[in-house]
């Protein structure tokens, strides 16, 4: 019944041609997909080193609706895809003697971190580095790709999504995240103007572009609201507070954003929320999935979609009773975890294993 209604809604929409694929002018992103959205987290990072073009391409070919670049800035102000500005664990920089002197300890959102930093490298310098697997102890197979792929720019990710959209004859969306916006603003390397500029130059700053923009901070999303015409997603952590709140002395925590009143406020600038998955279905004392919280219902009541993160196949990331063995690197029952979240009513999932999420979605 729900599926019929969704199809009818889509059929009523006006179709427009963009990027070689048909997209609807008025249906929501969820209505375009085969159900809840499959969001390729850092690409298909269960199978390739994260945030590489190879990882994003595989995610798209596996059926992901969107690919997710986390964005940081180079010294010369170019947006590149890395999970955080420190790149010692995701590139071969530590083995490059020419960059040994760049190793530095910095305060990143209140935490002292030692390593190599994108803001200390020009794009040309960063392009000499090669990506490596972040968690080789869990993803040994991915290490065969170490040293093969560059750090991509946002422009290269967009170029890839457009090329694959044409080839696969479906729109491959992008879901960029501004990483540590307050940190970069204080360095004079504001992320937001660059993001607006790149999206606009690529014809993606428009209401029906297949783009979401996400952030763990609040102030930058609110500021982007007037400069972007694409939907915004407020990310939340299971603990702590947005760093811009901490920085400005605002006492509110992430938990305050997720009360019914907090969600109504979020809905004034965002299309949806991206909570940690435990905020949707917590685990009990034994580490098994407990009953869902009220979050999905409360968010929907406020008019917000819900895209939790992060769904991963390794036992290490699964509830205890869905693990296949005591080996944290072996695959457990991700299907079981996903089916609980589909049943809880989520509108999409960030996943390192888009192929499994696509398969699970089709079984609903
Ligand atoms: O953006 C959704 C999810 O990726 C948030 O967590 O730390 O993997 O960027 P993180
Ligand atoms: Ca992210």
UniProtKB/TrEMBL annotation:
Its EC number is 3.1.4.46. Keywords: Glycerol metabolism, Hydrolase, Signal. It holds the Pfam family GDPD. One of its GO terms (cellular component) is periplasmic space. It is an enzyme of class 3 (hydrolase). Residues 36-361 form the GP-PDE domain. It catalyses: a sn-glycero-3-phosphodiester + H2O = an alcohol + sn-glycerol 3-phosphate + H(+). Belongs to the glycerophosphoryl diester phosphodiesterase family. This is glycerophosphodiester phosphodiesterase.
């Amino acid at each position: 019944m729900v599926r019929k209604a969704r199809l009818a809604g889509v059929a009523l929409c006006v179709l427009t041609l963009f990027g070689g694929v048909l997209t609807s002018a008025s249906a929501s992103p969820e209505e375009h997909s085969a159900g809840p959205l499959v969001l390729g987290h850092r690409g298909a990072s269960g199978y390739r080193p994260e945030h590489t073009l190879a990882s994003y391409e595989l995610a798209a070919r596996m059926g992901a609706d969107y690919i997710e670049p986390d964005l940081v800035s180079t010294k010369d102000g170019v947006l590149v895809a890395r999970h955080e500005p420190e790149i010692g664990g995701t590139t071969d920089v530590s083995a490059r003697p020419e960059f040994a002197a760049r190793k530095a300890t910095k305060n990143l959102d209140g935490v002292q971190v030692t390593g190599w930093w994108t803001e200390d490298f020009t794009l040309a310098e960063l392009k000499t580095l090669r990506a490596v697997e972040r968690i080789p102890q869990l993803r040994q197979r991915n290490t065969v790709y170490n040293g093969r792929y560059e750090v991509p720019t946002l422009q290269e990710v967009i170029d890839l999504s457009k090329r694959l959209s044409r080839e696969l004859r479906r729109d491959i969306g992008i879901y960029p995240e501004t990483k540590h916006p307050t940190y970069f603003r204080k360095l004079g390397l504001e992320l937001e103007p660059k993001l607006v500029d790149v999206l606009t130059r690529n014809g993606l700053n428009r209401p029906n572009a297949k783009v979401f923009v996400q952030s763990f901070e609040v102030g930058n999303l609110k500021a982007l609201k007037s400069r972007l015409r694409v939907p915004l997603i407020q990310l939340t952590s299971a603990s702590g507070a947005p760093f811009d709140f901490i920085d400005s002395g605002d006492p509110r925590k992430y938990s305050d954003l997720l009360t019914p009143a907090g969600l109504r406020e979020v809905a004034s600038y965002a299309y949806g929320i991206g909570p940690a998955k435990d905020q949707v279905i917590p685990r009990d004392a034994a580490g098994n999935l407990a009953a869902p919280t009220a979050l999905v219902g409360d968010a929907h009541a406020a008019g917000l979609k819900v895209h939790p993160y992060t769904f991963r196949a390794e036992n290490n990331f699964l509830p205890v009773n869905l693990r296949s063995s005591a080996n944290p690197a072996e695959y457990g029952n991700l299907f079981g975890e996903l089916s609980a979240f589909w049943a809880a009513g989520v509108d999409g999932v960030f996943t390192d294993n888009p192929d499994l999420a696509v398969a699970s979605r089709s079984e609903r």
